[in-house]
Amino acid sequence: MYAKTAIILASFALSYALLVFVATAWWQALPLAFALGLSIVAIGFNVMHDANHEAYSDHRWLNRALGMTLDVVGGSSHFWRWKHNVFHHTFVNVVGYDTDINLVGLGRLTPHHRHAWFHRWQHFYVWFLYGAMVVKWHLYDDFRLALTGRMAQHSVPRPRGSQWAVFVGGKLVFLSLAFVIPLLLHPVWAVAAGYLVTTVIVGIVLAVVFQLAHCVEHADFPTELGAGRMATAWAVHQVETSVDFARDSRAACWLLGGLNFQIEHHLFPHICHVNYPAIAPLVERTCREFGVEYKHNKTFLSALRSHYDWLRAMGRAPVRSHPLAISAEGAAD
Ligand SMILES: [Zn+2]
């Protein structure tokens, strides 16, 4: 983990320095913005995710320090812990709680979202939406949360004491890195283009990898019974709403920070991701023993295909059956 962290943080620093201080032409800036975007995603997957789950280290201070890498790259670690650790992890794929499935009505990721006519093309446009969601996160969502303390219909505690220092300091560092320093050296259009290319790469890769585990054909989308109660036990809910992928790929395991082992991550979020390949067969065997279906896609591409097919299925208008209509299956019986 330490070597991996050093490699990822060094690639972030190097690609940022080359992009801002060295590149003088668009053909140099474009690949560097891609590299910067990918190194930011790698920080998210491999460093800050474990750290903010207290899974990086046994030392609390180290988890806190590395959790702040998220603030440096533009997201508030304070609000992310609420959004991800509390709402996403406790209520996976549940409308009204899990913000990962909320595309503010522009996309339909679950059968429980209202259908709109333009969703029929969502398998084409949702990728750009994923990119735009990070721009919104950087420049709007965290500030709105800090002012209102409201996340959908829930209230979240606003930062207190030192958390304010991390929130404000993080935003200042990020805005300086993304806008103030580049504007001292480059024209406004170039800074805007560099920010957008980098951020859209971050958004697409981040969202796709998270969606491949929960928004695919064989994942469940349960609804609450009311007052935050679910029909299934917590562990069963975690397994039924998650789908692993590319479990045998060493590259996926290294690059994706265990996000291809979401079943294991959701059952054991406090275990560092480097251990997931070893515990996956034990989890799979235990699921079989208890009659809980353990689902996985063999490769990254088959998971991507499954997400695409799911988007297409959710984009079609739901069939409203007439109470007196006899279904084809019913008639055959
Ligand atoms: Zn997590």
Task: Output the keywords.
two-stranded parallel ribbon; binds zinc ion; 14 helices; mainly alpha; two-stranded antiparallel sheet; about 325 residues; single chain; globular; about 0% strand
Characterise this structure.
- Residues 325-333 have low confidence and may be disordered.
- Strand 1 (150-151) and strand 2 form a beta hairpin.
- The protein has helices at residues 2-22, 26-52, 60-67, 69-72, 77-90, 122-148, 162-185, 188-214, 234-240, 250-255, 262-267, 276-289, 300-315, 328-332; strands spanning 150-151, 154-155, 244-245, 296-297.
- Helices cover 62% and strands 2% of the residues.
- The protein is mostly helical and 333 residues long.
- Helix 1 runs antiparallel to helix 2 (26-52), helix 2 (26-52) packs across helix 8 (188-214) and helix 6 (122-148) crosses helix 8.
- It is built from 14 helices and 4 strands.
- The strands form 2 sheets. It has a two-stranded antiparallel ribbon. It has a two-stranded parallel sheet with strand order 3-4.
- Zinc ion (ZN) binds next to helix 5.
